[in-house]
Amino acid sequence: MQIKRNIFNQLVSEISEPFISILLGPRQVGKSTLLRALEVSAKSRGLKTVYFDLEMSSDLEKLSGDAKDIFRLLTHQSQVVFIDEFHYLKNASKIFKAIYDSKSKVKIFASGSSSMEIHKHLKESLAGRFRKTIIAPLSLDELQQIPRMNLREYCQWGGMPGLIHLSKPEDRMSLLENIVSTYLTKDIKALVKEENIRAFNSLLYVLAQNQGSLSLVSNMSREVGLSEPTLMRYLEVMAHTYTCFPLLSFSGNLANELKKSRKYYLFDLGIRNSLLKDFRPTEKREDAGIIHESFVFHHLQRQLKPNMELRFWRTKKGDEVDFVVIKNRVPYPIEVKSHLNHLEIPPGLQRFMKYYPKAPCGFVVNTGIVGEEKIEGRPLYFIKLEECVSLPFMASVL
Questions:
Q1: pLDDT means per 10 residues in the chain (398 residues)?
Q2: 3.30.200.20, 3.40.50.12780, 1.10.10.10, 3.10.50.40: which CATH number matches 140-277?
Q3: CB 278 within 8 Å of CB 269
Q4: Three-class SS string for 323-386?
Q5: Are 29 and 137 in contact (CB under 8 A)?
Q6: What is the pTM (predicted TM-score) of this model?
């Protein structure tokens, strides 16, 4: 079954735009499938297309010659060029720059499993000439295009697209394990010293185990046996490969707020469960709270616009709010509670709204209670987990 991605219509609209469209994200999140669907859309408009998969030796050979020959090949045969795994193309960004600057009216879509080198080249050679789109695993609403999929399934297996064709638990476990293995052997091996691969693997487990908790680099460093500078570099590598996201703390005008603390979230719940070797349904898990919190994090993150940030809030006294969406410098606090029996206002949220009168409203995301209360004279909305997939206040830029 083909799932239509929420980002697809936006990418289709880019076919007629001159900038280079770059699709980045972890392995096997559906970048190639999106490129193929875009090629079909371009062909339906009567446009001539060509597709190169640079993990295929035959396609890589076609684009392994002189830069001038590659430029001629890409600009003289087609109107829309698709290049999958473009990081294998030598001098890719310079070639893309030359095509853009030549006003040849050739549109390029390129995808890659992001790396430090890709970011460097994009920044140095393609400044102002490209648009970057991060492709994440399937969201809950995308996955629910398949009737049998629901929140329970999502929390257990995550949103990797390859799972939709598998029904047996052992096949799903195997797929997720292979994704982790491929990440280590292909994306990470080139960036991490050979002798530290095992330590990097340990870091993945520690991040999965402590997901959503305040994490001190010094503690993680001791646990995985790496120096703090090396550990920080590895965390940066994971951020640049979109496999682990740091969440910074929100601080405004309070002296006792934690200002330099961080939390970390792996990019997919199924991948986390694979690292922990625990695929029990959420209701049987001791870490159900962090599973639900991670679900909310993933779906808030993909709704962010250029004028928005996602943070968490905590004070030295222990007051905390799981997430704070900052939109046009205005904070919207969001607390996640797995189980509520009534419209109960979390004390951390109560204090946040007291300290920050600019916050227009707050949210309590939970598994069953829906309603509205007042907090410091402003509305506090109780919504179900599924509703955080698309929050109205995040839908528009203004």
A1: 92 96 93 97 97 95 92 92 91 90 92 70 76 95 91 96 94 96 79 78 94 89 90 89 93 82 95 97 96 98 96 94 97 94 94 96 96 96 96 91
A2: 1.10.10.10
A3: no
A4: EEEEECCEEEEEEEECCCCCCCCCHHHHHHHHHCCCCCCEEEEECCCCEEEEECCEEEEEEEHH
A5: yes
A6: 0.93
